[in-house]
Fold these 4 entries.
Entry 1:
Amino acid sequence: MTLKHKTAIAAADCSLFNQSALRYLSGFCNDFATEALADTLPVGQNSPQRVAHGLYAEQISGTAFTAPREANRRSWVYRIRPGAVHSPFKPYSNAWSGEQLCAQPEPNPMRWDALPVPSAATDFIDSWRLYAGNGAPQSMAGCAIYLYCANESMGNRYFYNGDGELLIVPQEGRLGIKTEFGLLSVEPQEMVVIPRGCRFNVTLLDAHARGYICENYGALLKLPDLGPIGSNGLALSRDFETPVAWFEDTEGDYELIAKFQGALWRASLGHAPCDVVAWHGNYAPYKYDMRRFNTIGTISFDHPDPSLFLVLHSPSYAPGVDDIDFVIFPPRWLVAENTFRPPWFHRNVASEFMGLVHGQYDAKSGGFVPGGASLHNCMVSHGPDADTFEKASNEDTSQPRKVTDTLAFMFETRAPLLPSNEAVNSTLRQSDYYLCWQGLTRHFTSGGTV
């Protein structure tokens, strides 16, 4: 399929990002073809001796060349200049680039307030703050979790991550994202994935933007198998969107920032790097509207495991055990009878980093605020606060109840998450978080049922 797309749009115009997107129709393994100029895509081969319009052919591979066909991700791009045309990279430092994870983390639950809007001009890349992580880019396993709050567009600065793909969850403020593959507009209650190595630029479409980022070092995120659920449910592949071809043909003073092996680097460019006129393949940015998630739940008794709320996952080498799960808790009906309906008290072999995009989380009556975050590590006991427990324990479960006006999510990992030194010592950390459970009083009597 070849789609045509106009290119003569002013970069300063916010409507630039309101472009049509190509839908995934049957999963992440489709091969897409899109061109911004007619007759750009070659027919029958990927790198002809002379590419149309004097362009260069370049392949971007997100998996090993020999990965199985169903798992192989790569795209061919046809661009004005090869990606290699830039000055040598030199070290670049900003507020988060040197931040370290704790060498000896504490086993206490942690919770933070939302990041404040910066007082100084701060763009998307400079606004990141490292909160937690595990693994390492060198091992190609694990993740890093950041929060961001920006009040300035990136202008002539572009970024790519050589360490992993980026799952971005906006909480406040819309993002206009220029990528090598085209344009995306992403708003709160949507999420976007930027592939490893993809160059992009973020324009703020509102006064400021705040949200969450999971940097995935391991296997590429994918839709989970549905198993006994069948062919429908959870996130539907048809609701994922990837951009059509769009390009910048602009010369001037541009900067390319790279993240490689945990450090930041910068190089100068004499041209805008989003100069791909056409592309085909299955390795590209994509976004998803979480309001379209088809929630599955119990219709008899017991609270379901959070795996029923899985949107995307990064599989590990252990069958059924993921490096990363991206789980969401959207509005839904609760109908289980004779059941404690909120999440029960639990401690997991998995570690949970939670964020709140909108509204109130149904397991906490207060303190967990939109834009805030919490970390419950491996085998750290947690669950509903005292007020939620009391209310749910006395609820009339013969009547259904709808959880409305909410969207929470969780980055769950199989390995413990080490908090960053900055997050542990942050003034945004709620030192009194533990108090939310102290009102859970004894009800037991040895003489029988209460």
Note: Residues 14-106+116-290 form a domain with the Jelly Rolls fold (CATH 2.60.120.10).
Entry 2:
Amino acid sequence: MALMFQRLARNFIKNGYYPTDSETTQRILNALAPAKAGGMRIIDPCCGEGIALAECKHHLGLASEAFGVEYDAERAWHAKSVMDRCIHGDFQDCIVGKRQYGLLWLNPPYGDLVSDKADTGERGGKGRKRLEKLFYQLAMPALQFGGVMVFIIPRYSLDAELAAWIARHFDRVRAYAAPEQQFKQIVVLGVRKRVGAANGADATEAMTRKHLDAVSGGAVLEELPEEWLDAPYAVPAAPQGDAVFAYTRMDPAQLAEEIQRYRCLWDQFGLKFGRMSIQHRRPLRAPSDWHLALLLAAGQVSGAVTSSDGRRFVIKGDTFKEKSVRSEMQEREGGTFSEVRIHTDKFVPVIRALDFTPGPDYGRVVTIR
């Protein structure tokens, strides 16, 4: 089967970006299949130009949704044209729902973490600090139980620590040599499991660890087969509800894109904000303290007012909670005494006014409690 989107890929190498070649992509797709009818979510936290994940979406069916993140602006905006959702930014600044995605395509940047890395905290493990390990830790929680991981890394980056992580979190783990060996890549496939949930988990984990340790140690590795003859890695349907996929930082271009995407607020701008111009009716009688507290809590006491003597104020009302403390002395058995403090919550209405009357008090802030 010919790939649909490879003709769109420019496949340039820049800033640690090593795109997945078309032959490796095709062979991985041969090993994947949808688990059952229903929408799927697939994600690539280092999606580059989005070509690999677009091919996955086409292979799994149009019911699947493709989500991606890319740091480079040029590649990210290209990916937006072939994916359902793409964020231009740092994956560490993204909010991605846990266990909401059925396929994790992870071809992270390759290289060592620099000593002054920003905002990575203690991530990266205790072994060799590698970008591949950092992105594994960041991205793996997004994969739902039963979801499929496609992990494409250089063989030399698979150390004992990373092998232990993969063995702990995944079943059906198999590592293959990529058909294209320009970057000495391997392809690790696995299905996410519940840690410690199944009988025999320790034995399976030990076997997986032995397999990955052999790969790390330089054992002869089978090439990813051109024709997949085993049971396919089934991508499960997405869980109920909307996907959590957001960015904590926003640039003007992406903000404009989001406004165009979610127009419901702006189409109803007048309806949502027009009520601010509605004049409130004065109460028929002076409000009691209880009514005043409700008005303040609802934000109905605000705006410009004129007092009976002609002074002008801009006022804003609010209600806050404070505690009153009362102490009592209680006698214990044996003639000793103890102090008991009673804390009582009390809601206090407050009006703050800014005096706009020309004169010596102009600009004075008045607080009424």
Note: The CA atoms of residues 203 and 209 lie 10 Å apart.
Entry 3:
Amino acid sequence: MRRWVWLALGLSLACLSSAVQALDAALWQAWRERFVTADGRVVDTGQGGVSTSEGQGYGMLLAVAAGDAVSFDRLWAWTRQHLALRPDGLLAWRYHPVRGVEDDNAAADGDLLVAWSLARAAERFGRPDYRQQAQALAAAVRRQLVVQTAWGPVLKPAPAGFDRTDGLVVNLSYWVFPALDALARVDPDPVWPALRESGLRLLRLARFGRWGLPPDWLLLADPLRPAPGWPSRFGYDALRIPLHLVWGGVRDEALLAPYRAYWEAYACTGRLPAWTDFDLDAVDAWGGFAGVQAVAGLLGLNALSKGRPRIEELDYYPATVLLLARLAAREGRP
């Protein structure tokens, strides 16, 4: 489970305006200088300097949005050299700066993000080879990580490690809705729109706790329930779900309302909680994670901080969520 030190920084609603036309060059430069090495490795400063397929995907996504073809090429070259080791076409998910690849299991969100970034780069930079590589990685995800269930096709989080005797464990934040839409164009297959529908279906059903929120990890059993072995909470993983909904153009108020109600309940405190525990009915007491402020802004909540966040003062994950929220505000249609 990830553990981060969160800083009490917010994001003004003006920074999330849909009038934003591109990723701010200064913000991208600050993110790149803080988290990307000279050879294109994205460093997770909150996890001891490791790198992941998720991090490489986010870095590539941000580089495309900033129009930085040189950095994109460097990020993708490092990813191919160090993570594209599996014979099934998926990426190894975790790399240690000293030990190298320390877990060659794949991660569905990382593979989706990298494939989506390649598809976007193909259009932005006029590189048909990137489109072909996006299609190949998307097809590998479709073949290796999509399984049929009573809820429709779902994404296994990884090829190994999430099948239990009582059901499959999934992570609903791995349903990156705008990525699913984009990959349907480069890898035409009915599974992509079907995955979109299954994700929305599960989000309508997997509601727990006071606000009816989805857990970070969900057990596909009857009835659905938070996965045993993980904290029973809406937390740092599930935080990405409303981000993906808005970015994917989901307008269903019934799907967006639980997140808005959750954070509105604490708006008067000036500090939005990053997680809520379903069993204990407890919330994050610090409430200073800049990424929460950014995602809440996407849902129309008033800003809770008068200052602008400084990327230089944030760890990898909150800084990344903040920049992703800017892209979602520009591209999504809530």
Note: The chain has one domain: 13-331.
Entry 4:
Amino acid sequence: MLQFQAPMIPKYLATLALTVSLVTFAASSLQFATRSQVLAGKAVDEALQIEFTIDADSSHTYKISPRIKQFLEDHISFYTEGPARVVSAKVEIAPKDVSWTENHSTITSTGAAMAARLQWDTPADSANGAHGKIYLNFPEVPGLERKAPTFHSGRYQIDNKGRYVIREVTTYRDAFLLSFARFVFALAAGVPIGILLHTIFWGFVLKGEKRSRVAEFPPQGSGLPRTFYPNPIAEWTIWLIVFGIGAFPASLLALFTVLDGFMSTTFIWVIYIIMASTAAIALLGAYFTGKALLTVRVDTNGISYARGRGDLQWLNAAWSDIFLFKQKSRTYRGSTTYWIELEFNDKRKKLKIGQSLLGYPALRDILKSVFTAKK
């Protein structure tokens, strides 16, 4: 695929692996990893903050009165599944106006902020890789039966049974296994963020690589015959642009979960699916870009052109074979793209020459002079 730039691939992969590893090592020491992958028998203190409303209808919410506040503080509880055990929990409710975004509009309505401090642990004899969850139980408020809360901020996930998951826990009995597990878990954040940072860095690397590649082209003067080569890093440019675009939303998703301190298995799969899909699209984009690359050779008798890299299959056309020469442009958001179109006498074949061709202005001037003289 990247045949012309094959020597760059080991360098790219090595620097990418280093960047992802460094970001992952840093992420593995943060709360979202250390409180999800734990040493069996060790107690963990957890602080939880969630803003919520209790909806009366689609446009109104109930005011959290002192009665509702006291009821929720007394009855909100936490329960577990698997090896995790809640040791103690204290909940405080503070009535407040809660804001959230819906259909690109900011909505503010009466609600409350819940602050919970809980301590949980796992049995010392928990098996390696034993998986558990800690759930938040939000009770029905007397007088507001069948009125479920709507959470607007905070770390949680709603599972397929409608339960609020506030922590997923996996236990390990060995410090080495724990460190390795945290690294693997943190890869979900390290991969997209590392790729995004590496893409920015590699953009500067490509600038230097382009200069060195252009310097390797056979020397030629300003007269004819003359060969105009394609961008030597065109495939890499497409790869980086597409890969970087895909890494950006995945990085934001990872960053938000890291800052919240909770990354669910659902988010992990979403991140990996985004990055795998992006890699496939970027690979196809680079492949077809390489196949479409155009090399143009001009002499006194006519023009020759070939697509791709490696062994080129040249097509030749005398000047008399060209029926029409056009210069075209398109402007989008203040950026103008230029290209040349040559239409052959059979009126079925057209050759489009884009401005990314090295020496494009000189080729444009040569063709302009040829077709001006023909007139």
Note: Residues 175-215 form the longest helix (41 residues).
